[in-house]
Each structure stands twice: as C-alpha cells, then as structure tokens.
C-alpha cells in the first residue's frame, strides 16, 4: 500500500512534466510558424512595392485612366470652343461640367463645384422633409467650421446660414452659391481655359494623362435613405 502511494504521485509528476514539455514544443512550433508567416508577408509587401515603383506600371495605369476619360467625354473641338465663351455655357454642358470638375481635382479645389452642384440639386427639392435633410447635409459637408469640404465664404454669409439652418428654405444657400460661383468664374475658370485639359480638347488633340486625386467622398442618395435626389451623385 505504501509503495503504491509513493509511486502514484511520482507517475503523475512525470506525466505532468511530459505534458508541459509537449506544450512547450508545440508552442515553440506555433511561434516559429508565426515568425515565418511574418517574414513571408514582409517579402510580399517588398515585391509589391517594387512593382508599384516600376515606370511601366504607372504608364499603364495612367494610360488606361486617360483612355477611359477620353471615351467618356467624346468632346468635339466645336463644343470645347463654346465652353470658352462663358462660364455659364461651360457648366450648362454635361461634358463641360465633368471636364471642369476634373480640372479642379488637379488643383485640389473640387469642393467648390461639388457645393454648386449640391445647391442646384437642393433647389429642385419639393418635399419639406427632403429640404430639411438636404440642407443639413449640405451645411455639415460644406458650410460649418472644419467641414470635410468647407468652401471659402465670408463670415456674414456663413453666419446667416448657420442661424437659419434649422428652418431652411429653397433659398437658404443662394448667397453662398453665388459667392462660390463668382470665385470659380473669376479664378478657376480663367486657369481652366489655359490648361492642357481644355486646350487639348479645343485643338482636337489626344487627352494627356493627368494626375488625378482620388475622388473625394461625396453624398449619394443611399447616404440618406429618406432623401430623394434628382441626381444620382453630387460629384
């Protein structure tokens, strides 16, 4: 009886040590596998980095993008000439609006045309609930301090909008829209008419690749499920 009592705990101790040993072995294997996985992931990132740095990679990307834009617009030199007659004629033409927006993206100032388009859509609203929701969306994106796409407005214009935003009307943004329109007409439009983007179209030359920034986040109809818009997207 005494012998069994002596050896029983010893066997348990050996068994416990064996389990501990195997746990350490398996744990070490997992750790090693984890290290190997990290090394392989790092190697893949390095290979991707080298690929992105290759000139032919960029040339193909820009070529495809430029070709897509050219196919989309299909602007004749005659149409482009009309855009140069006035800023209003440029914006009233669908391809003119898209081309001008593309130009503004190269200058990192597309918030101005996005705001103008949003206001045009807002003025078509008929349902009172739509007016309230759209006005709030425009205010939060373009007007309020530190808005993600804040447009350049004078203090008085911004203050009037802020005071009346809880009870908006279809004319709540008229003053701000007019201000932004003037800024684009006097500043951006003048540079646009001298840009390669416009001159290539007017002269009938193939469009050159342009360094376009990623399209900024824009409002869509799905963002506000209760808001029905007359346009699919505010650029």
Automatic annotation (TrEMBL):
UniProt keyword annotation of Glycoprotein present: no
Annotated ranges, domain RGS: 86-202
Domain of life from the UniProt record: Eukaryota
GO biological process terms held by the UniProt record: negative regulation of signal transduction
Keyword Cell wall biogenesis/degradation (UniProt): no
InterPro entries associated with the record: RGS, RGS_sf, RGS_subdom1/3, RGS_subdomain_2
Pfam families: RGS (PF00615)
UniProt KW keywords: Signal transduction inhibitor
Official protein name in the record: Regulator of G-protein signaling 18
Lineage, highest ranks first: Eukaryota, Metazoa, Chordata, Craniata, Vertebrata
Gene encoding the protein: RGS18
């Amino acid at each position: 009886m005494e012998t069994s009592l002596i050896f029983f705990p010893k066997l348990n101790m050996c068994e416990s040590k064996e389990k501990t040993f195997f746990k350490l072995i398996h744990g070490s294997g997992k750790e090693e596998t984890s290290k190997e996985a990290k090394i392989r992931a790092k190697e893949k990132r390095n290979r991707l980095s080298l690929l992105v740095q290759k000139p032919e990679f960029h040339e193909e990307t820009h070529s495809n993008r430029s070709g897509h834009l050219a196919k989309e617009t299909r602007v004749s030199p005659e149409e482009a000439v009309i855009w140069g007659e006035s800023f209003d004629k440029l914006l009233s033409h669908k391809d003119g609006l898209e081309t001008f927006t593309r130009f503004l993206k190269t200058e990192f100032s597309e918030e101005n045309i996005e705001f103008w388009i949003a206001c045009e859509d807002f003025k078509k609203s008929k349902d009172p609930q739509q007016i309230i929701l759209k006005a709030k969306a425009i205010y939060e994106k373009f007007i309020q301090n530190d808005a993600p796409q804040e447009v350049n407005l004078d203090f008085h214009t911004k203050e009037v909008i802020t005071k009346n935003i809880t009870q908006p009307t279809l004319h709540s943004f008229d003053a701000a829209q007019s201000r932004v329109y003037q800024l684009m007409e006097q500043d951006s439009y003048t540079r646009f008419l001298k840009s390669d983007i416009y001159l290539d179209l007017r002269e009938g030359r193939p469009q050159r690749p342009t360094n376009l920034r990623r399209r900024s986040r824009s409002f869509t109809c799905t963002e506000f499920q209760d808001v029905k818009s007359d346009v699919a997207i505010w650029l």
